[in-house]
Design goal:
This protein is mainly alpha-helical and 91 residues long. The protein has 5 helices and 2 strands; from the N terminus they run E-H-E-H-H-H-H. It has helices spanning 6-12, 21-33, 53-58, 60-63, 71-89; strands at residues 2-4, 17-19. The relative contact order is 0.12.
Length: 91
């Protein structure tokens, strides 16, 4: 899977195109400063609906989560983060 801009991955749904972690981190950092929830929790693996290791390593410690990165507990935590983003951006 090749990296591309976040907007390209979302808007055009380019096959084989994943948003660059650096791009998403920059978006989330700016959002955090503005009081917005992170969007990275929305980028998940198809197999288990969980974010990849980079999210767990780079984001979770700031959120206070100390549980496992897989399984029901992880999925419940991710869903709460996703709900925050969906609720915030609901039009």
């Amino acid at each position: 899977m090749r990296n591309c801009s976040w907007s390209s991955a979302i808007a055009s749904r380019v096959p084989g195109c994943a948003p660059s972690a650096a791009t998403l981190d920059a978006i989330d950092e700016a959002g955090r400063e503005a009081g917005e929830p992170e969007l990275a929790a929305l980028v998940v693996r198809e197999s288990d609906r969980l974010p990849g290791q980079g999210w767990w390593v780079g984001k979770v410690y700031r959120l206070g989560y100390e549980g496992p990165w897989t399984g029901k507990e992880a999925l419940a935590f991710v869903r709460t983060r996703q709900e925050l983003a969906f609720d915030y951006w609901k039009v």
